[in-house]
Amino acid sequence: MTGLASRFFASALIYAVLGMTLGLVMGMTEDHAQMPTHAHMLVVGWVSFALFGFFYHLFPAAAKSRLAAAHFWLAEASLLIMLAGLVQIFMGRTEAGQPFAAAGSTGLLASMILFAIVAWPSVRRA
Ligand code: HEM
Ligand code: HEM
To answer: Which helix H or strand E contains 60, and what residues bound it?
Structure first.
């Protein structure tokens, strides 16, 4: 695995470790307030980013486009921003967290649309 594929997969590994650590802390403290943060860190950060890594590994031509690079940076930045919002919202700092959650989730959706545009031709060819 090289290039964009390995960068997506490496970030997925980091989110897996961070997300499971948060889950463990939630379990040990019996405070599940950050459950949505934990859930999205793992289902988006670990599962979805790992899938992107595998996709770009299987379709290296798609990984070379500028749109694919834009997908990577927008997805990575948006997830960080969305998580920064979720942490604050579920700490009780709703007003501080909302702009981050709104910007991050909008960016994440935009990044998914970019990915659909990048991936669609490969899927049709396959
Ligand atoms: C060390 C491993 C893990 C621990 C200790 C852990 C712990 C937890 C805890 C304490 C909750 C809150 C449950 C509740 O309040 O109802 C939770 C929810 C959740 N976890 Fe984990 N988790 C782990 C791994 C994972 C992984 C690997 C994923 C996904 C790939 C995941 C996805 C979720 C989701 C989606 C929820 C929300 C479930 C719901 O909506 O009811 N977790 N986890
Ligand atoms: C634009 C990005 C997204 C937004 C704005 C969003 C928003 C939300 C909201 C508002 C909830 C309900 C939380 C609650 O009731 O406390 C939720 C739950 C959930 N979402 Fe997302 N989501 C996004 C992306 C995703 C993606 C890509 C996945 C899967 C790959 C996912 C999986 C889940 C799961 C498993 C739950 C249930 C766990 C929980 O309640 O925290 N979400 N999401």
So the answer is: helix 60-63
Structural domain boundaries enclosing 81: 3-125
Q: Is 23 in the pocket of ligand 2 (CB under 6 A)?
A: no
Q: Take residue 37 and report the two structure tokens written for it.
A: 């943060």
**Helix, strand or coil, per DSSP, at residue 93:** coil
Rounded to an integer, what is the distance from CA 51 to the centroid of its chain?
10
Reported as a single tens digit per residue, the pLDDT across 57-104 is 999 999 999 999 999 999 999 999 999 999 999 999 999 999 999 999
Number of domains in the chain: 1
Residue nearest to atom 33 of ligand 1 (CA): 39
